[in-house]
Design goal:
Elements lengths: L7 E5 L2 H4 L35 H9 L14 H15 L3 E5 L2 H4 L10 H16 L3 E7 L5 H7 L6 H17 L5 E5 L9 H5 L11 H26 L4 E7 L3 E3 L4 H22 L5 H9 L10 H7 L4 E5 L4 E3 L7 E2 L6 E2 L15 H15 L3 E5 L16 H19 L4 E7 L19 E3 L11 E3 L1 H11 L7
Parallel strand pairs: 1-2, 1-12, 2-3, 3-4, 4-5, 5-7, 6-8, 7-11, 11-12
Antiparallel strand pairs: 9-10, 13-14
């Protein structure tokens, strides 16, 4: 078995990390606009970057600067989307995954009528993609919900957001459905428990005393319901649409064969998969329900919720994969940074400049595990490495990035040869952007270099890295030429 002839090669970006223009075109403030860059932060403290309180929000609202709030400026994709898409087309992209900023359509999330300037902007992007025959894969919620909904309702802890999200989703389906076949509802929906504010707008000091953890899991439930109802609405509005779930694939190994380590790894993987189970099987897993009881988490179900989940499952499962991690019952083991969480360092793997461990075989393991468990098509919608790039005489020689992708794509192809049904692969990210975890620009992922530093200084000029031409050859050969 080989990659399908219509395999969706491409890249993935999010509105909050690339668009900029945070106060143009009628856009409202999102939760991403108050995410502050903190220089000189220790690698192991990166996960703490997501901790937000009411004082930090007030300070951010009062400060209109983009210097330390870099997601406000992004890489100015808002004004440069035509030339950037032309570069993606030059690489031969078959697909581009991107998100629609809720606050460009409904600035506060509660308007009765959508913002026409926001609709026009995304229509222009879709028409540009259509010109190059690039398939759009649209994410409705990618860490950029309206800030006002966090302040007024403590985010998704309130069921009111289901109604508001459906209003936003319906407009997207009606306005963009003629151009978009593939839809994702929530980016990395499992991440609500790791960074509740960025994913769900929940602020701990806005929760009632002792209710913060309960609010997190209630928010997750509300997002599951919203995702299911959005899938139902999409199928009513958009012909021949495909609805996907999206999770962070946090593949976890036991650090040793000590039974306690094996059990910890099993618990971690089951907790990760539960979020896919709910959207694919249409019900809460039994062990997940027992966990909620044990932790005294009381999720409020409405009478129709079980039926909503059961009747509106997804067509495919998409996921991000950057790394694997190990867990140990020995608390003295050396820790290393990872994708919004730490793990015990794996001595058999190399690490990126940011401490994320490089594990191409882990991608194959993840594909086999997910396909065997769910038997529905899969899509890899984020995979890549953050690295420090150096410009030498206008060139960026990033063989380390080529090596990373080559080995991951080799393992991906092995999984397909073993029978995995894979729809596509979109790298994160095809162009340098603001990092979601550290809010840095110097943590570069792209095949295209953007001249901007962590302070926002630079011309924003785009430069092709060596990996640009390498990926172009990969796509042209449908993955056969990885040399």
């Amino acid at each position: 078995m080989q990659l399908r002839d219509d395999f969706l090669w491409g890249g993935a970006i999010s509105a909050n990390q690339v668009e900029g223009a945070w106060n143009e075109g009628g856009k409202g403030m999102s939760v991403a606009d108050i995410k502050r860059y903190k220089p000189n932060l220790d690698v192991e403290d990166y996960a703490g970057q997501h901790q937000i309180d009411s004082k930090m929000i007030k300070e951010a609202i009062a400060n209109e600067s983009t210097k330390f709030y870099p997601k406000r400026r992004g890489i100015d994709f808002y004004h440069n989307y035509k030339s950037d898409i032309a570069l993606f087309a030059e690489m031969g992209f078959k697909a581009l995954r991107f998100s629609i900023a809720w606050t460009r359509i409904f600035p506060t999330g509660e308007e009765n009528e959508p913002n026409q300037a926001g609709i026009d902007y995304y229509l222009a992007i879709l028409k540009e993609l259509q010109k190059y025959k690039i398939e759009p894969i649209v994410t409705l919620s990618h860490y950029e919900m309206p800030l006002q909904l966090s302040l007024k309702y403590n985010g998704w802890a309130d069921r009111k957001l289901v109604e508001l999200f459906l209003r936003f989703s319906k407009i997207c389906f009606e306005q963009f459905g003629d151009y978009v076949k593939y839809w994702l509802t929530f980016n990395e929906i499992d991440s609500v428990s790791r960074h509740p504010f960025i994913t769900a707008g929940i602020v701990e000091d806005q929760s009632a005393k002792g209710e913060y953890k309960n609010d997190i899991y209630q928010a997750l439930h509300h997002q599951y319901i919203a995702a299911a109802l959005a899938a139902q609405k999409c199928r009513q509005v958009v012909s021949d649409c495909k609805i996907g779930a999206m999770i962070t694939k946090l593949t976890t190994y036991p650090h040793t064969c000590k039974p306690e380590d094996v059990e910890l790894a099993l618990q971690s993987n089951l907790a990760n998969l539960a979020h896919a189970d709910i959207q694919i099987k249409g019900e809460y897993p039994e062990l997940y329900k027992k966990y909620l009881i044990k932790e005294k988490i009381d999720i409020k179900f409405k009478e129709a919720d079980k039926q909503i989940l059961k009747e509106n499952t997804v067509d495919f499962l998409s996921f991000s994969y950057y790394m694997s991690r190990t867990v140990s019952s020995d608390s003295s083991k050396e820790k290393t940074a990872g994708n919004t969480m730490t793990g015990v360092k794996n001595p058999y793997l190399e690490s990126t400049d940011w401490g994320w461990q490089i594990d191409p075989v882990g991608l194959k393991i993840s594909l086999l595990e997910l396909y065997d468990r769910y038997q529905i098509p899969l899509m890899i919608v984020e995979n890549g490495m953050g690295a420090k790039d150096t410009v030498e005489a206008g060139k960026i020689h990033d063989n380390y990035r080529i090596d990373y992708f080559r080995e991951h794509l080799r393992e991906m192809k092995k999984a397909v040869e073993m029978g995995v049904e894979l729809l596509g692969y979109t790298s994160w990210a095809p162009i340098d952007c603001i990092s979601v975890s550290t809010s840095q620009m110097s943590k570069r992922y792209g095949f295209i270099y953007v001249d901007q530093d962590d302070q926002g200084i630079g011309s924003l000029k785009r430069l092709k890295k060596d990996s640009f031409n390498w990926y172009k050859k990969v796509i042209a050969s449908n993955g056969e030429n990885l040399s």
